[in-house]
Amino acid sequence: MNISIPPAPWQVQQWLNTPEPITLAGLRGRVVLVIAFQMLCPGCVSRGLPQALRAHSLFADSDLAVIGLHTVFEHHEAQGSRAALAAFLHEYRIGFPVGIDAPSAYGGLPQTMQAYNMQGTPTTLLIDRKGQLRLQHFGHLEDMELGAAIGRLLEQGTQG
Amino acid sequence: MNISIPPAPWQVQQWLNTPEPITLAGLRGRVVLVIAFQMLCPGCVSRGLPQALRAHSLFADSDLAVIGLHTVFEHHEAQGSRAALAAFLHEYRIGFPVGIDAPSAYGGLPQTMQAYNMQGTPTTLLIDRKGQLRLQHFGHLEDMELGAAIGRLLEQGTQG
Amino acid sequence: MNISIPPAPWQVQQWLNTPEPITLAGLRGRVVLVIAFQMLCPGCVSRGLPQALRAHSLFADSDLAVIGLHTVFEHHEAQGSRAALAAFLHEYRIGFPVGIDAPSAYGGLPQTMQAYNMQGTPTTLLIDRKGQLRLQHFGHLEDMELGAAIGRLLEQGTQG
Amino acid sequence: MNISIPPAPWQVQQWLNTPEPITLAGLRGRVVLVIAFQMLCPGCVSRGLPQALRAHSLFADSDLAVIGLHTVFEHHEAQGSRAALAAFLHEYRIGFPVGIDAPSAYGGLPQTMQAYNMQGTPTTLLIDRKGQLRLQHFGHLEDMELGAAIGRLLEQGTQG
């Protein structure tokens, strides 16, 4: 893991797959995996989201929360609506909560994407049980590396 | 190959990636690979379209024409617009011509999809040099099998 | 396909998976796929042999003959015995006939490998129904390309 | 991880890729990944050993030791010699230490394989920093799961 800093707050316009909005404060005590994606991003569809689904399944009985963040910064007409995203989540059987990153008032990158200075999609975040951002990675992480990082953070939470 | 019948005409609302509409008559003399897909169909995105792109590249110097047909039968609000499809083709670097199957006046399956009695997406069609429909397959075909079918049809055209 | 020449005769020390030795003359009228391999060649094990098995299965009802040629040019102590090869064929469930290329009297490349001027393993050969060598390829061929080449040669045999 | 017991001692006939024999006692303080394999076991070659190589590379700067154990229980004539194994390790670029499990005096399973009651190959073992056997798995483990188990054990060692 490459950092240990307080994460910027999430600016989410709407949530799907969850009855209640999700907040960083509400996740305190759990390890959090965030996958920032766009539904028309090939690397997200072929690698990032399938990996997040594997993590969601593998760690189902642990304290890992898996959260999607739809950070639309291009093709707004095609992927900017809640309906388009809902259809996508349905077809790809993505059952974990997904927030729609709030668009910027000035166009360009949406607000959370900007606050984290993300370089594109997919971007993976890991937040530890104490609420610190411990990893931020643009592009693909190998499964073994992501698994090891999650394993370390889960273990930290259970000790001293 | 499992059939040899005249193909139903294509009912295409709009074409992308081509300056002129494409017709079965205009393709006579060439072998034609058609991939019927939806942009939010996971099997199309992960297997059918990458395969069509491989065929497009492998047979670039031959008489094979590769054509996409966007047969939207669900999630119209998400994938029914030309803009959504154009964004998708751009992101997935699909450069071959793609026609938007004409919606039915009564809802349900679009017109070409109905005329071919397609069961879903992806569906692969192969048309021979004489304009006969020789193969129609719903789901995935292995690359070797599709290659063999194309090879046979290309060879037929150069003899007798 | 890149050539059309008479193939050099095969110099085979022993055959496995066949009651009778196999000869080029005996294969006349059929299309022949030859995979030259070594049991300790990673590219053969991971790609070349699985591909030959796919071809063997896909074209089981056609006139394609699939033949292996064990062209040992290194690690003779590990892969040079019939027993080692037999164990390998058993474990990898390779049921098509495999000939052991005859060692050279002077060491170095075995005789058939030399006669074909093969550059290493895996090497793929295709022979047409008239007994002409039509393709020789060192390294991996994509499934679609090999399928197309086989399809063309199978088709040629049924015309003219 | 499914267990926490003292591991049986290793009965190794010879070691490759290491100047000195390796012992459980000498590894105390490190996390140890053991891959028990046979060079003619397809599941070992296609999945288990590539995974061990990925772990060896990914955790190169950590306290993980990766060890191979050649547990030959069949095809002794083909894979039972040091020369055969050395050729295999060379071709597959396996650079971590590999021990040859000592054959049983009575035939059948080699001694270490017996002592661990392994059901076949590949079998994966994980030993923690305190020298306890924490995981034993026959067949394939997904990369994310193995990564998580290694990450947890590496983390345990640095706390308390």
TrEMBL record, chains A, B, C, D:
Under InterPro entries, the record lists: AhpC/TSA, Thioredoxin-like_sf, Thioredoxin_ResA/DsbE_sf
Q: What is this protein called?
A: Alkyl hydroperoxide reductase
- Entry superkingdom: Bacteria
The UniProt record lists the Alkyl hydroperoxide reductase subunit C/ Thiol specific antioxidant domain at: 20-134
Q: Name one Pfam family in it.
A: AhpC-TSA
Coiled-coil positions: none
MF terms (GO), sorted A to Z: antioxidant activity; oxidoreductase activity
